[in-house]
Amino acid sequence: MTGRFAPSPTGDLHVGNLRTGLAAMLIARSSGRGFVIRVEDLDPVAASREHERDQIDDLAAIGVVSDAVPIRQSERRERHLEIVAELRDRDLLYPCYCTRREIREEIEAAASAPNDPAPPDAYPGICRELTRSQRSAHERDGRRPAWRLRAGGELVSFLDRVAGERSGVVDDFVVVRADGVPAYQLAVVVDDADTGIDQVARGDDLIPSTWRQIRLQQVLGLGTPEYWHLPLVVAGDGRRLAKRDGAISLRQVVASGVPVERVLEALLASLCSPWLEPVGGDPSEPGWAMEQAGRFDASTLVADPVVIEDLRALWGDGTA
Question: I want to staple 52 with a disulfide (CB 3.0 to 4.6 A). Which of 9, 103, 123, 148 is the partner?
Fold first, then answer.
C-alpha cells in the first residue's frame, strides 16, 4: 500500500503545491502506507531536470521525502506505449485529426442541445467514425492525429475522501498526443497500477480527470485507488496562484525573511483546523514525518480553499 505526490517539473512549486505534497505524505503515513514522489515530466519542452531538483529540494525542506528514488514518467514511455498497443489491438482507440479550434466550434454549436449529460467541454466525437478515405485526406493535408479512447460515454462515480460523492460522464479523451507522447491520463493510470499506488492525494482541480482515469482503469482491468482531492490555495479573488500574487514559492518566501519552519507550521495549520501548535523537530531528520503523521487526523482536513493572504498571516513577516 502506497501513496504518492506527483509534481510536474515545469517551474517552481508554489506554497499551494507544497501544501498538497505535505498533505499527501501525511495522509499516506497516517494510514500506514509507504510514500513516493513521482516526477511527471511527460512534456519534453517544459519539463527540466533543474526544476525537478529544485522541487525535490523544496519538498525535502518541509519534510516531504520519498521512500524510493523518485520515478520519472519520461523513463517509462516504453511501458506506456505497450498499453497503447494493447488498446489499439482491442480497437479501443481511434485517430483524431481535430484542431482545438474545430473542437471548440463544434462544442459551441452543440451547446444548446437539451438534456445532454456530458460536461460542457466534452469531445463531441468529430473523428469517431471517420472512413479510411477521410483519414487519408487529413494525412495528405499534413495533419498528425492524436489517439482517443472509445470511452462509451459512461457515467462514472467515485467517493472522494475529501470532496464526497462525485459523478461525471466520460468523453473520448486523448491517450496519445499528436506528437506521439503518451498523454497524462494514460501515463498516470499505468504508473499508479505498476507501482502499487492505492492512494492518490492531489489538488481538487484534478477531479474532472478522475472520471477519465477510472474509466481507463476499468477498461484495462486495473484497481482504483482511493482519492483525496484537496482544496487549492488561491488568490484573494479565488483565482489560482500566479506570479502576480507576489512571493509564492518557498524560496521567495524564505528570501523575504520567513524561516522554513514558520512556513511549514503555517501549511500544517491550514490543513487541519485544530492543528495550530508548533510542529517542532527537524524535518530533515529520520522519523520526523512519522512523528507528524502520528499527530495528524485526516478527518479534520479543511474542505474549503485557502487564501494566500491567510497563509501569509499564519507565517507572519519574518520579524516576529
Answer: 9
Apex CA 222: angle with CA 217 and CA 227, to 5°? 65
What's residue 319's pLDDT?
A: 42
CB 238, CB 244: distance < 8 Å: no
Q: What pLDDT, on the 0 to 100 scale, is given for residue 277?
A: 56
Cell of 138: 487529413
What is the rounded distance in angstroms from the CA atom of residue 313 to the CA atom of residue 307? 10
DSSP 142-197: TPPPEEEE--TT-EEEEEETTTEEEEEE----EEE-TTSPBPHHHHHHHHHHHTTE
Q: 157 phi and psi, to 5 degrees? A: -125, 150
> How many residues does this entry show for the chain?
320
Q: What stretches in the chain show pLDDT beneath 70?
A: 111-118, 273-280, 317-320
Grid coordinates standing for 39? 516526477
Q: Contact, 215 vs 188, CB < 8 A?
A: no
- Cβ burial 60-98 (10 Å sphere, 16+ → b, else e): ebbbbbbeeebbbbbebeeebeebbeebeeeebbbbbbb
Q: Cell numbers 521512500 correspond to what residue?
A: 67
Check residue 249 and report its DSSP letter.
B
The 10 Å Cβ neighbour count of residue 310 is 14
Measured CA to CA, the distance from residue 174 to residue 123 in angstroms comes to 9
Sheet holding 146-149, edge to edge: 93-96, 146-149, 174-176
Can you count the helices (H) and strands (E) in the chain?
11, 12
